[in-house]
Amino acid sequence: FVPERFEKIYLQWIENVRDWCISRQLWWGHRIPAWYCSDCGEITVSREDAAVCSHCGSAQIEQDEDVLDTWFSSALWPFSTLGWPDDSEDMKRYYPTDVLVTGYDIIYFWVARMIFTALEFTEKIPFRDVLIHGLVRDAEGRKMSKSLGNGVDPLDVIEKYGADAMRYMISTSSTPGQDLRFRWERVEQARNFANKIWNASRFALMNLGDFSAADIVLSGELGTADRWILHRLNETARDVTRLIDQYEFGETGRLLYNFIWDDLCDWYIEFAKLPLYGDDEAAKRTTKSVLAYVLDRTLRLIHPFMPFISEEIWQHLPHEGETIALAEWPVYSPSLEAPDAVSEMNLLIGVIRSVRNIRAEVNVPMSKKVELLIQAADADTLRVLQKNEEYVRRFCNTSSLTMATELAHPEKAMTAVVTGAELFLPLSGLIDIAQEIARLEKELKTLNAEVERVDKKLANEGFIAKAPAKVIEEEKAKRNDYAEKREKVLARIAELKG
Q1: Contact 485, 447 (CB under 8 A)
Q2: Distance CA 398, CA 66 (A)
Q3: In angstroms, rounded to a whole number, what is the distance separating the alpha carbons of residues 444 and 493?
Q4: Long-range residue pairs from 383-389, CB within 8 A, at least 24 positions apart, any chain
Q5: Which residue, 55, 7, 13, is CA-closest to 34?
Q6: Cβ 266 vs Cβ 395: under 8 Å
């Protein structure tokens, strides 16, 4: 049982088992195959509809009006659907099955009865693992019911956000055995994730043109970004396979989300634009090969969670085969390991992110070119930066770029430290210092006024005596917030004037 704790529930039922009354007085179900003879009083049991009593031959027989318990027929499901009692090809191939997925509320009703029924009629257990999932509850944790009116129609979710978004959200939002609270914002996030995959694929298809599966070659001169994304795909395929085998679908969803959104879309595709839009045809072919290969394998990994969008995109990509559902599952390959490329990309991503953070801190848009100085910790780091200088210039949008192991530090500059390097962005190239000081002093004046206003309010005995405790705490929180902002502005003014 996954999780193991549900094994105890199963054993408690089995170890304290009682006779099971299998008849039910319902209007639907499998009628009990027993006929009662009004002449001799005997019972006829038959696989075929009986016409006469098997004991005395009388036609005065009447079938039992009861039906079999719903769980009686359900208990036969693992083998009855495969042609049992005949020794069919389906029975030979598919029985016993591997995994049963079910809820914790029917462990005895269904799971236990399938097991003892299968043992009785086939002498084999019907499945190897029982994966227990939780119940889908409303946002407040209540069980969905008609009386509460808190149910959610899956068709409404599909109509609004798509089947893949709903499937991905439900399958990756909880751990085995845990209930799931249904929240519309989670479905919206899943829809946005699907859109991200769709838009990344559109970009790829626009640039691949008539590229075919036969054109995909990974043995060319691969760049740092190419080797890095292949390494990350390789790691992701290995970890996703391991997690799926362990039924950890929530963690699987997190890995796929991070790989697709961050690594593939936010970084590799952006890096790929340089060779794709460049004049080097060899580099362009290599990038197309890597992009097509990685996207193809990524879609295979996400297919169990988003089957519709992955199939639709895959059919338009360079591929071999009829459907992605029958495509080979991506497996880990030692040949794609590239730890040196990972180190290089970590350095480049660190530099680019730091520059973007500094821009955001001083309100400098990405469209404005800036002066950037990078002091590398050693010659190897400098070599990596120089090899990838084009990426640094493009994604930091530099007016001038200086890189060295030793350089003169500008007096007034924004700085950042990444592993292996220190960054300097001279303030004179970022902002008008005098204008920025004037803006900050104006902001300081406003903050001083707010602090003074709150202090007067909190010093008013009448206010303290009459106001609810919650309101007083809110005012104190405002005061702390204004004071904290004021200290930061004072520090920034001192830095600019220093």
Answers
A1: yes
A2: 83
A3: 9
A4: 384/343, 384/344, 384/347, 384/348, 385/347, 385/348, 385/351, 385/421, 387/224, 387/344, 388/224, 388/344, 388/348
A5: 55
A6: no
CB atoms within 10 A of CB 392: 20
Which pair of tokens denotes residue 61?
Answer: 């027989």
State how far the Cα of 369 lies from the Cα of 360, in Å rounded to an integer: 14
> In the prediction, which pLDDT does 364 show?
86
Positive or negative: CA dihedral 156, 161, 164, 166: negative
CA proximity to 10, closest of 135, 104, 79, 98: 104
What's the CA gap between 78 and 91, in Å, rounded?
A: 10
Single-letter residue type at 94: Y
CA dist., res. 286 & res. 222, Å (int)? 7
pLDDT at 177: 81
Is residue 229 within 8 A of residue 245, CB to CB? The reply is: no
Residue 217 has a pLDDT of 86
Backbone angles phi, psi at 473, to 5 degrees: -65, -35
Contact 255, 246 (CB under 8 A): no
Q: What is the mean pLDDT of each run of 10 residues along the chain (498 residues)?
A: 93 89 92 95 94 95 95 93 93 94 92 94 95 88 88 93 95 86 94 97 93 84 93 96 93 96 96 92 92 96 97 94 95 94 94 92 87 92 94 93 89 83 84 77 89 90 86 89 86 77
Backbone angles phi, psi at 15, to 5 degrees: -75, -15
Task: Quote the CA–CA distance of 207 and 270 in Å, as a whole number.
Answer: 13
* Residue 287 half-sphere exposure toward CB, CA atoms < 13 A: 27
Q: Which residues, at least 6 apart from 443, have a Cβ–Cβ distance to it below 8 Å?
A: 489
H-state helical runs in 246-306: 249-258, 269-276, 281-302
Token digits of residue 430: 């970022």
pTM of the predicted structure, to 2 decimals:
0.81
- Helix, strand, or coil (residue 42): coil
Q: What is the CA radius of gyration of the chain?
A: 34
Q: Residue 468: is the preceding peptide bond cis (ω within 30°)? A: no
Cα–Cα nearest to 425, from 435, 412, 437: 412
What 3-state DSSP class applies to 53? coil
CB 410 within 8 A of CB 373: yes
Alpha-carbon distance values, 68 to 21, 24, 71, 112, 237 (Å): 9, 6, 8, 17, 47
Of 401, 244, 418, nearest to 331 (Cα)? Answer: 244
Say how far apart CA 45 and CA 449 lie, in whole Å.
Answer: 93
